[in-house]
Amino acid sequence: MVRAVGVVNGLGARWGRELAFGSGQVWTAVGVWPLLAMLAAGAGGPVRVELERALGMPTGEAPGVARELLARLRGTPGCAAALGLWTADRLVVEPGWAEQVDASLRGRLTGDPAVDRAALDRWAREQTGGLLERMPVDAAGAELVLASAVTVRTRWAVPFRPGRFAVAEGPWMGREFVKLERSGPELFERIAVAETSAGPVTEVRMAGDGEVDVHLVLGGPGAAPGAVVAAGFELVSGASRRMPVAGRADGEVWPGLELASVDASSPGDVGVLATAGFLVRAENDLLAAAELFGLRTAALDGDRFPGISRSMPLKVAQAKQVAMAEFSAEGFEAGAVTTVAMVRAAALVASRRFRVRRAVARFDRPFAFLAVHRASGLVLVAGWVAEPAGPA
């Protein structure tokens, strides 16, 4: 799993550098990597080489690692993961390849667009607990659809206090939006700063009640969204070193952070987080970054996947992910459905006062977030908050 975490997180970080962030963004490499592993198991020639490069490990190992990864997610409190496969009756699939997907999660494509759309969307709703209503695929003419669903849900041990933000400067200046605030000694230990490839950042790690933490990462005003998200991945992997605020001097300048020594009625340093609540939705086309995912040749005509079917040449026609993430006063939840559709390819080649330290982190302009499996460091979902949640 240590190796799997490294390659999946690496893919997620590389993907983040290529995404558009204008209206907010959310994505998960955890939903993509198992599908690439399945494709690699049936690929031949240059497609196999390209997928192996994207996976970061030999194609012979990847399917087993993908199954272990999904099983680990299913065994993680607050997380769920599923893999689904649908095939047309006219397609003869190699048994050894199809058996890598549990029989209960295999279905058929009828060729009737309305019937297939209803069945695929129903699967998406059921596997994400209603977080996502549809599967991002057009099954018309498809011979095979492969899909994954990943969900993350965690509740805060102590809910935030909802309020209102009034921002005097920055991209959200003059707007009223939901402010979620928490404070306490434990939060002081969860605020850190770092010098990263994106420049200086401030990070706050929020603990959920299961095995998932949500990391909020704020960069400098001029830092690009993809760079700030990549900095979050660096902090998770250890490529950039976290510096606890306990070791920083009062008055040091870090993004959105105020450090000071103050008088208090009880002993103990205190951390304060004031952040915008958010609901982010996004749909991303994997073929728009085909080189990154090893899908460039896979989308061309020719007999690319002999290990999937010897009866019909196949190519990848669609590869998409739809995802959402919501950070509220009570907790965090996110879901993603990722799909690959394949079609027939042309046969071509008190009163006492104490002196304490207080760290106040204000996330009142666009910032990054990463939902991380605490024990392994696997990044389950990553994203960018371009717009705050409006008043209730």
Low-confidence stretches: none
Tally of individual helices: 9
DSSP, total strands = 18
CATH fold-level label of the largest domain: Antithrombin, Chain I, domain 2
Shape: elongated
**How widely separated are the two ends?**
42 Å
Q: From the coordinates shown, what is the CATH architecture of the largest domain?
A: 2-Layer Sandwich
* Strands in their spatial order, largest beta sheet: 1-18-17-9-8-7-10
User: What is the string of SSEs from the N terminus onward?
Assistant: HEHHHEHEHEEEHEEEHEEEEHEEEEE
Structural class: alpha+beta
Under CATH, the homologous superfamily of the largest domain reads: Antithrombin, subunit I, domain 2
Largest sheet: 7 strands, antiparallel
Mean pLDDT over all positions: 91
Q: In the CATH hierarchy, what is the class of the largest domain? A: Alpha Beta
Estimated helix fraction:
10-25%
Q: Cα-atom Rg, whole angstroms?
A: 23 Å
Number of domains: 2
